[in-house]
């Protein structure tokens, strides 16, 4: 986008850039949510929902498909009948008491550490998509190239403080895929990485690579999470084998699980916001309880991702009023438990159009006003997660950057109010281009967009009438060309490569299900 | 859009629509803002800004170009030097005390009345554009046809509770234009109409037409506003002839002025949010004071529209972090005064693309969290107001409808939490398609979009891969074809037509400046 800006006419002969005393500095790495949290239900209603969730776990139970998890629940006091686990409220209460309320996720550099607690605000780009799409190459099954490129783009924007499992690299064999995704994350970014919970062998491989590459001994690894995973229950009320195994493995090794029932109102959850979130809450509590039974104090995030289906077609919808209200309700329950929590934005649109922008931003505001700690799928998600769009990552990142700007607040001291330095310097109908206040601040006053364009219609037309999507293509191409990966320790990279070669020769580790 | 929905496959053999007990009903006409108001500055800072605004009026003064207005200010106690008017804080305090805190704008039917007070939420589509644009006919100078069509579209959506001066009908001679715009508003909608303040003769023509058509005698007209105008100061610190005249004429006749300095930080206002809003506040207070000097208790709204320029090009920008914070600051000052107030969304984009959607929604959320009573330019505005887009009105109205849905809140009683009617009816890994709760609510549970499309990628591709913009064209075409204008009283229409014919023969009323 640099050329776009450079080509713009300077309307006024103001001072040169070198005369401005400051460079504009931003810090999007450690954000605090500036928005007042919003309620959709009364405190009594929230307590009733929590009570109903406890009753659901006690009377209806969870189906748990992993024998080891059943055994852990049973040892912890649960009543077990076959694969049905009935979890008492005292078990849940103990888990909520022991789960940490503040978690520091460790990046590859201390300035990449990310604090997860109520009030902090962390964004992730869209994740888990089988397909990738962009305007140059069209929509295709996700590939290793896509995963690499998406990692570089996510690394570029500070506002994405955690990595996400962006797109599935379908051209990498499944028994070797986790080596590829971990190596890519380690080489191309120093942000807090993601590890899929697809069985213990893959998880252990991931932990090993991470510890070796980042030089973390077992004790340190156990004391703070250096990676995280997302655990989706199979709603309603089922915890499957890899997800249960993931909760156990991550808790046992001190790594972070984000327990997120993914529920669509009217399909795998009740049709009401209150019902869907109550069910989601019960399932999240079951997962959280398992982590604390494995290891008291294990890092775990409360999670929700609840939207509605279109009742005419059964298709999932996102960024809807019900999605928004579900985020609010989940936020109230998260604050009720005191745990950091994740929510999600997203879009059902099939292309990065106005619908996609509006849905994602509606979903985002629901999360922001719900006080979500981590907002996943905050950029790039299309088709309800069936694809990630390169252009949409860029256009959504513009919104996220602007929200990050809002986190910084604004000043209103005498210099900012500016009676002397601005208001009294200008005659009626005059202009403020050259006031003392403007001269001090014109280089730093305003957010500078990377894809939004403020050219007037004539200039914009002369330049080819490019819409934001078309410009976004140039932005991601520029990011890939710049390739601003962190410095690489060649020794550690060698160790990593050797490990992968050895494990590949041994047959890798197929995903478990 | 009806065909799009009808063509969708019904995935499940659920009950027919006739089995559902309820029809979905919405009420978007009387909205209360459900969002907690957000502060950007401390209460002390806001008080300092108010004090600085008072000092600005007392020490620096307003330039007032209309002798009648100068005389009124002088009679009210202001110090006058030439065309400079210095307004004492006691005058401002008296005006803020006498200005009504709740105003009912009267529509053509009682269900179209609109209450303006802190806490109520009213949307207007984008206004004041010289150009119109749509995908079928391209961008062109605004015409009578555009004004008529835009009026029909604005009438169609209940969420637009006030009419706006959408697009300038440039093919209607300026001395007759106000007859055309008033007749169009009266014939095509019963919503609270807009009258431009372009000199006393036009204003009086407008009042006459409105009173005759709606059967309102002088006394009743004086007691409640039946129309409104927007008064923009010429920032900094200038009140020009037509604007001053408008404030006087509207106040004298009990009609509503919305006093809105339009300020761009770094151009006609200080470069800081605090400075720009302080200046804007002082100008708004000057305008409000004039209305109360003319007639104590005259209906008047506090207004702000402050965004920033791009300091590289001088071009106006909208939906930026500074725009958002300016709305928040204005909201704090409005609450400080207790008056209903208007703010604005908007976009600088040159086409209805992702930038346009994102900017408008960012601007909107700034207004929503600022507790704005009236949000103007909430749909359709492009190019910083140089054009209105038919498609953008449709796509933005989708967002506004979803926000209106949020105003209604959600229930969380036992039936909604649904332990009996939903959660306990479904086995683990089952579905909720046929629970008692779902069967009672599937027809009414969720907002139904008019332009967003939830079809999956395959279906969407088969249907022609239409983006939201393309679908929006069909939506506005459908609205125009339906032409759901209110019932017309032929006698009153005849009287209106006679009046216009007579006034046209007399030479009409040229705008004054």
Structural class of chain A: alpha/beta
Q: Which two chains have the most extensive interface, and how many residues on each?
A: A-B, 133 and 133 residues
CATH fold topology of one domain in chain A: TIM Barrel
Mean pLDDT of chain A: 95
CATH A-level architecture of one domain in chain A = Alpha-Beta Barrel
Strand residue percentage of chain A: 5-15%
Query: Which assembly state applies to the chains in this document?
Result: homodimer
- Gyration radius of chain A, in Å: 24 Å
| CATH H-level homologous superfamily name of one domain in chain A | Trimethylamine methyltransferase-like
CATH class of one domain in chain A: Alpha Beta
Find the count of extended strands of chain A (DSSP E, 2+ residues): 20
User: The biggest beta sheet of chain A, please?
Assistant: 7 strands, mixed
Q: Could you say which overall geometry of chain A the principal axes of the C-alpha atoms support?
A: globular
Describe the structure.
Two copies of one chain form a homodimer. By secondary structure, the first copy, chain A, is an alpha/beta fold. Chain A has a domain at 63-407: TIM Barrel (Alpha-Beta Barrel), CATH 3.20.20.480. The first copy, chain A, is built from 18 helices and 20 strands. Chain A has helices spanning 2-6, 43-60, 67-75, 89-98, 144-156, 177-188, 200-214, 218-223, 241-252, 273-294, 321-337, 354-369, 390-407, 414-417, 436-441, 457-462, 468-482, 490-505; strands at 31-32, 62-64, 79-81, 84-86, 102-105, 114-117, 120-123, 131-134, 138-141, 228-231, 238-239, 256-259, 262-265, 300-303, 305-309, 316-317, 341-344, 374-376, 381-382, 387-389. In chain A, the strands form five sheets. A seven-stranded mixed sheet of chain A has the order 1-7-18-17-14-12-10. The first copy, chain A, has a four-stranded mixed sheet with strand order 3-4-2-11. A four-stranded mixed sheet of chain A has the order 9-8-20-19. In chain A, a hairpin with a 4-residue loop joins β19 and β20. Chain A is globular. Residues 1-18 of chain A have low confidence and may be disordered. Chains A and B meet through α2, α10, β16, α11 and α12 of A and α2, α10, β16, α11 and α12 of B. Chains A, B: Keywords: Methyltransferase, Transferase. Chains A, B: This is Methyltransferase. Chains A, B: Residues 1-22 are annotated as: Disordered.
